[in-house]
Amino acid sequence: MMKYYLTVKNYTEAMRGKSYLKGLNINCNVEKVSGKGGCGYAVVVGDNPERASRLLSTLNITVLKIESGKSDGLS
Hints:
Blueprint: E1 2-8, H1 11-23, E2 28-35, E3 38-45, H2 49-57, E4 65-70
Antiparallel strand pairs: 1-3, 1-4, 2-3
């Protein structure tokens, strides 16, 4: 199963986004991710990352990038 990482500015935005998406019955989590600028946070969804990104934008949460990766099967 694929996972999609929607990287946001900080932990607070990630948690706000997670809460909002879960309220819409979208299964998601928050994970710490590393990048060029150090560590950041991402809202992780199982499918339709473009829709999740649009929904987050309604809360003025900017998705900095969307990346995909394979699930480790633990979540």
